[in-house]
From TrEMBL:
Topology versus the membrane: Multi-pass membrane protein
E.C. designation(s): 3.4.21.-
Enzyme class, first EC level, given as a word: hydrolase
Organism: Patiriisocius hiemis
Protein name stated in the entry: Rhomboid family intramembrane serine protease
Chain positions covered by the region annotation Disordered: 233-259
């Protein structure tokens, strides 16, 4: 019964909670495998971390995503998952799970690409062999995306009121400042790559351009491969529509248009004054609209 309950809770959990659970399970599995079989971390994860050498990563292209699910130690995964939970809540207040996954996974890819390009183009990294692991590039993409899309969303820490853009800007600048002498150049490059993607994605989305649509479509295609096709029930086809059907369709179309206008007005309000400025009714309406 307990196992069934946990399975049900996982299936019905928000996508960022599922990602946190998945990351935690992988971390525990890797650690226990290493302990019981006396194997070091790299030996276990070598086919999943992202190498900097072209001759290596070309043989494991999946590593551009899989590296984001491997973590070095407890504090590495702890802080990544805390940031993912916190900023993930803001994103999922406005967008659905598919959009969230697109930001997260393409953010990981962007972070991996900047890391690989930097280690192969810039002389400062010559002779340094490195491997990239950790979800921080993907998490940074989530953080910068929502801070760009709703920059004035504010919340209180103790007696201070802070806006999302201020947190994102501070952390992003800190990564740039620490890059020359951090000892973790690869990880910081992944942060920067994910953050740059999150920024441009939010900027373009606000203009009506979904630059992540290709990846969302790709995920749908993958999902369809593993989803059994159901036989379509036989439908009767009528040559003409009755007046009642036309009226019903027209009413539904008008309702959708009105709902979209209301959603747009609420999103404008969030952009100007932050999510906390919404009334309870507006929050409820936005939540229901996202479900639909």
């Amino acid at each position: 019964m307990a196992a069934n309950s946990l399975t049900y809770q996982y299936k019905t959990a928000p996508v960022h909670i599922k990602l946190i659970v998945l990351n935690a399970l992988i971390f525990i599995f890797v650690r226990l495998t290493g302990f019981f079989f006396n194997i070091d971390l790299f030996t276990i994860t070598s086919w999943f971390v992202l190498p900097d050498s072209f001759s290596e990563f070309i043989l494991q292209p999946w590593a551009f995503i899989s590296y984001a699910f491997i973590h070095y130690d407890f504090f590495h995964i702890l802080f990544n998952m805390l940031w993912l939970y916190w900023f993930g809540n803001f994103v999922l207040n406005l967008f659905d799970s598919k959009r969230f996954l697109t930001i997260y996974l393409v953010g990981a890819i962007a972070g991996g690409l900047l890391y690989v390009l930097s280690y192969n183009l810039f002389p400062v990294f010559e002779g340094k062999n490195a491997y990239l692991l950790g979800a921080s590039g993907a998490v940074t993409a989530i953080m910068v995306f929502i801070a760009t899309y709703t920059p004035n969303t504010a919340f209180r820490i103790f007696t201070f009121t802070i806006k999302l853009w201020q947190i994102a800007a501070f952390l992003f600048v800190m990564d740039l400042v620490r890059l020359p002498a951090s000892g973790n150049e690869g990880g910081l490059l992944a942060h920067i790559g994910g953050g740059v993607f999150g920024y441009f994605y939010a900027q373009q989305l606000a203009k009506g351009n979904d630059i992540g649509a290709w990846f969302t479509n790709f995920m749908d295609w993958i999902s369809d491969l593993f989803t059994p096709r159901k036989k379509k029930p036989f439908k009767k086809v009528h040559r003409t529509q009755t007046t009642q059907q036309k009226t019903k369709r027209s009413t539904t179309s008008e309702t959708k248009t009105d709902n979209q206008r209301k959603v747009d007005a609420i999103l404008d309000k969030i952009s100007k004054s932050g999510y906390e400025s919404l009334t309870k009714a507006e929050k409820d309406f936005l939540f229901k609209a996202g479900k639909e």
